[in-house]
Specification:
Length: 560
């Protein structure tokens, strides 16, 4: 998911750099009182600064989502030992895109690309200009607020009160998670006030809502909802739900839309670009997730995954094959009792959590990403090989916050089983409807393999019946498993939910029986630690964020 945003980010950053350096995008009237080699921030083009903020934000969302998905088995994680998998540089790029005023992402060219830096520049321009750039400022504040929430959630701290003030704070201290949350909430309030005046876009490109300020305000309230859920603020959460002004429909979903261009720039979904190549697929899908969907006969499975083979070696009725799937010959170790170790049925060919075996010649047999959300092929049991331009050509999405996710938050905060079941049903139905809408991207697929309305109803009714019949942890597992399935493609909140609740407890174990404690936070960005003497790197991944009040590692989460 990351590479496409990097490409777009570099492309737009180059334009930003060119305009900042030569002041040639809007005017040819060079004011020689200001050196062209030392251009003031308020002479930059606000539209290009906003583009840079949006693209940096998009890159961050893709990277954070991948981390959350890897840890929660929604995606496949390579590497057996958690601490080795997530070293100190894990958050370096995310940190740089958020803060740096000199972030080198263009080879030898240094450009101002940090979200916070460019937001400050936009605010300065807006304050000193006769032109109203409040829309730009509001978008920037909303996106920075969400990023700050995520930094507090994933590494426990972030810079804010001493950030971007090198004169007074050359080596900024990090604020606590609670203080970062408070700062993010303030930014959301400021953004909402600006959006409420329905400011003009002034020609800005809005990559998310095409200038619709009503939808931006709904997003702001939805960001509040997710944060109130994590912090357990039930009264504030319910107040927003009662007000109804949040993301409730797929038309309001917060997502990044990709295209089908392969070059200049490559704007296809990055997973599509990785899997639909002349040399075959390059991503492994999660055995745990695929098996969950096979066992449950989930109607989304043919949209999520495209099978290149009708059988996985070692699965029931399929001979083992040491060359293409060496683990198919292995007797599962004791800690995998009751879980799929190597081979999922029906040709769903992936890998289990932590498997770090070498890569065999399976690029044209392993399961590839499907038509949702990557814009690939719909699985109509043709079992053909992937290739350039197949299916939807990569015109997928990066889900960030969907209306279905919000229903799961409402269910998690519900105070009765009946209310939780109602929210669960709504979340599943919205998820399935959105996913089915992507089927049309693959116009050559045999549509007779798409699930019917009756199939969908039977599935949803069955899940709700299972939920109502279950008790205790089993009930929570039914709910959480469905949330995980809906989060495929945009799993940032899975990592938060897992540390908040400990569910689902049905997650398959790590390939390695002793992988170390499950990461409760990531390490601090190593680049910042090296250059900032006020910071000391952590020695493990067990530090808990302020809203994670569960037992210390390694006993929690229980599935690990």
């Amino acid at each position: 998911m990351i590479e496409i945003m990097k490409n777009l980010f570099k492309y737009t950053s180059l334009v930003v750099f060119a305009c900042i350096s030569f002041v040639a995008c809007e005017t040819t009237d060079l004011d020689l009182r200001v050196s062209p080699n030392d251009l003031a921030a308020d002479q930059a083009d606000p539209n290009l600064l906003l583009n840079s903020i949006q693209l940096a934000y998009g890159s961050n969302q893709a990277e954070i989502s991948d981390l959350g998905a890897d840890l929660t088995r929604i995606d496949y994680m390579f590497g057996q030992i958690y601490f080795n998998n997530f070293p100190g540089d894990t958050f370096d790029d995310i940190w740089g895109r958020t803060y740096s005023s000199d972030f080198n992402d263009l080879g030898d060219i240094n450009v101002q690309v940090g979200m916070y830096t460019n937001l400050n520049n936009i605010s300065a321009i807006n304050a000193g200009s006769d032109i109203d750039y409040s829309f730009h400022e509001a978008v920037g504040k909303t996106l920075l607020a969400h990023t700050l929430f995520q930094l507090a959630d994933y590494i426990g701290q972030a810079a804010f009160s001493e950030a971007l003030n090198p004169v007074d704070f050359p080596f900024p201290n990090l604020d606590s998670g609670e203080d970062v949350y408070a700062a993010a909430f303030n930014l959301l309030s400021e953004a909402e006030t600006l959006f409420a005046a329905d400011p003009p876009t002034q020609g800005a490109t809005d990559l998310f809502y095409d200038g619709d300020t009503d939808n931006w305000i709904k997003l702001i309230n939805t960001l509040r909802l997710r944060s109130y859920f994590l912090t357990g603020n039930s009264s504030a959460f319910q107040s927003i739900v009662t007000g109804g002004n949040y993301i409730t429909d797929s038309d309001e979903d917060f997502q990044i839309q990709f295209g089908t261009s392969e070059l200049q720039p490559d704007n296809r979904h990055p997973d599509y670009a990785d899997d639909y190549t002349p040399s075959g697929a390059n991503i492994y899908q999660s055995n745990w997730l695929m098996n969950q969907m096979v066992v449950k006969a989930d109607p989304r499975i043919r949209y999520y995954f495209y099978r290149q083979s009708d059988g996985t070696p070692g699965a029931p009725g399929v001979p083992a094959d040491e060359e293409t799937l060496s683990c198919s010959l292995v007797i599962p170790p004791p800690h995998y009792a009751g879980f799929i170790y190597c081979s999922v049925a029906n040709g769903y060919w992936g890998r289990s959590h932590g498997n770090d075996e070498g890569t065999p010649p399976d690029n044209f047999t392993r399961t590839a990403v499907g038509v949702y959300p990557a814009g690939g092929l719909f699985d109509d049991s043709s079992f053909g090989e992937v290739g350039l331009g197949e299916g939807g050509g990569g015109a997928g999405i990066e889900p960030i916050i969907l209306s279905s996710y919000v229903d799961f938050w409402i269910g998690a905060m519900a105070t009765s089983d009946a209310a939780k079941a109602t929210a669960l049903r709504a979340g599943i139905e919205k998820s399935i409807a959105k996913v089915q809408g992507f089927g049309s991207l693959d116009s050559n697929a045999d549509s007779s393999f798409e699930p019917s309305a009756a199939d969908v109803s039977t599935y949803v009714d069955g899940i709700i019946a299972d939920f109502n019949a279950a008790t205790g942890d089993d009930k929570e597992n039914v709910f959480a498993e469905q949330y995980w399935i809906a989060l495929y493609g945009g799993a940032t909140e899975a990592y938060n939910y897992y540390r908040k609740t400990g569910f689902p407890t049905t997650l398959a174990p790590n390939w390695e029986p002793e992988p170390g404690a499950f990461p409760r936070t990531f390490l601090l960005p190593q680049n910042e630690v090296i250059t900032n003497p006020n910071l000391t790197q952590r020695s493990d991944l067990t530090t808990q964020v302020f809203w994670d009040t569960n037992p210390a590692s390694p006993t929690f989460p229980p599935a690990n």
